[in-house]
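Standup notes
- DV: blocked on the single-chain target, sequence here:
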Amino acid sequence: MAIESQICPPKKPQGRDLEIPKLTLQEELNNNSDPNSNLKENIDPEKNSIMDKNITQDADQETTPLSLTIPTFEHVTMLPTPMTYTPLSPGGLALSPIIDQHLNIAKRRAGGTSKVPNIQHTNEFTQMRRDLDGLLEPQQRIVSELAPPPLSSPQRIVSLPTVTEEASSQSLELPIVPNNALVDLDSEHQEDFILTGYLLGQWDKPLQWKKIKKLGEGNFSDVLLYESFIQDDPNLIQVAVKRIKYPMELNDETFRNTPQYKDTISRLENSLTRELTVLKSLNHPCIVKLFGINSPIFLESKTPLRDFIKSHGLGLPPCDMIMSYCAGGDLLAAVTSCLGELDIWLIQRIFTELVIAVKYLHDNNIIHRDLKLENILLKYSLHDIVAMKDSPMFKRQNILELADFGLCKKIDEGEMCTARCGSEDYVSPEILMGIPYDGHLTDSWALGVILYALLEDRLPFDPPPNATSRQRSRATSHRIARFDWRWFRLAETDLDAKEIVENTLTRKNQRWNVNDLLESSFVKKELDTLLL
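- DV (later): unblocked, structure below
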């Protein structure tokens, strides 16, 4: 049997992009706490028009693509009251609610085909409706990413990971700008194939690399493969360079005289320096490594952009982060290219290394806040990993690196976070609700989402297979707030990995932390064999 057949199933249909509108909730829902009751509300086309502003999918689509995510949720002001049920609720079975337990919400009908009788409105009511419709216009769905998506998936939108932090932090939120409003430093310097950079702490010894190809492209950064002219250090022969793209407005002379200019510069600087400071402090085999930078100013100054402008006049300095290169690409692309299924031994190995990496971060008081399939980089292709399985070195060599620390945060012991950030399919209910949260437990939640996705070949809060049009129209955040997930492929399978998902995709007071994950039988059995 060919190696590929050991890991790849038949291809499943792709989903379609969803846009995330604001959510509201009828007051009656707050009184429904019985998980066995059918939650209903009277169908009124005007009252419920706000509830069903969600963008629907075609009836033949079963899942949302794994790659759809957003970094901030400032537009979500109200959410459905979470169900009293969770997979591990006292007295309940470790199963998700039955399929019939859903809200009956009237859908807005398009065009003139609606059978709802016309209703006469006063001018005041009509104006109120216009105001509400304006507020509820679908917002662009935003994600953050490092590596490129698979060719078969829809084009993704990315954003620079800047967030509004607590009062004690200097990190600010960068306004979202259109894709065409950015300065692509790479396209501006098509003939600049030589990168001059410095290893950390060796500012007097410049090194040079030549550009090989572009690995990934996002709205605010590109990732490129560079090869060293000097072949004496195997770690530096090939490197991944994360090249920042700046908002175009920063190069607009008229914008420089506005109050927004200084604020935008400050937010961008905080994002860059936060990520670089954390990366510089990390040293773990399962975490991406920062080897150097193209200019020492980004590591020596807290305000590198403003300092550069003061000394050089107009223009912004290119920012190239020189990092370790993972030839296998990101985990999402790898799983998609192999048509969706991994052997359980490989899932166990990948997840164990990921837990080890997160454990290292948490032990150093760092929370990641953007754990997802796209940010897990494989050092080798899946084909090569399977071929290495029986090698004596397989247990001594890590196969992945955790990347993208743009949303990470160094916290004090016991500190609670309030920044509403992350990737929508992976964020916990408390982040969506805008309440203070424990970053360690939100990372645990994301780990549960990742493991579920690897086991089920779908995200846990996708619309269920064979869902009704009403279920498909419901926002992902709605299902997250209700803990509305269940097993499908593994529903009748007894697997110890399921215990991890059931204890992470649950309420925060019941949720496992990373130490609990390390003690789980699924992780512990693999961990005891590793010699990393």
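- Follow-up: The radius of gyration is 24 Å.
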